[in-house]
Amino acid sequence: MIQIDQVSKKYKDADYYSVSNLSLHVNEKEIFGLLGPNGAGKTTLISILCSLIKPTSGTFKIDGLDYQRDKNRLKQLIGIVPQEYALYPALTAFENLQYFGSMYGLKGKDLSNKINVALERLGLLPFAHKKIRTFSGGMKRRVNLIASILHHPKVLFLDEPTVGVDVQSKNAIIQFLQELNQNGTTIIYTSHHLNEAENFCTEVAIIDHGKIIIQGKPKDLISNHEGTHNLEDVFLSLTGKALRDHA
Question: pTM for the full model?
């Protein structure tokens, strides 16, 4: 589904490459975890794949579409759930979702039905006409997610989708994402919650200093690293315990 070949990115006036000659293939219907310390290059790579920024060099394809020749068609295939809330606080949940759905060409009863079904599935239908600024963090996260999947994307990019939410909201989000995946959506997921990633992802890659240092199924990575009992142990053994403060 995703083919990345020798992609690099160096920001203007930066001393180092944020992503360096990175190659990666992600299979269709995978739940792929992109894991790494702060500043490792995860968000830069996702921003490149979403065509939000241009790579310095290299190329990539999504579902066979080249990012240079087929950018508009490629954007129609994907959904993006950013780490920050991408919602208008003065609008209701329903109004927000109407707006984002219309950007994907959805309209009328079809759009309204999709919104209502998704709101009900994620326990938000009673709050459909309440303004977003009155919502809790977990409620905002769920609306943020719905905004990205109304057009049934083939690939869904998730940047820290459960950060700062209560246990019930996190459970609802993970279950919803698993259902999307079972219905054919390929998921690219980043998180610092390594226990969550271990249970959620079918495949993970650990990235550091802009390069992939290991890739595989979580259980295989754990069993192949002596003295490790979980994905967090593997992560620390490969990236070290030094603080990665990043500004």
Answer: 0.91
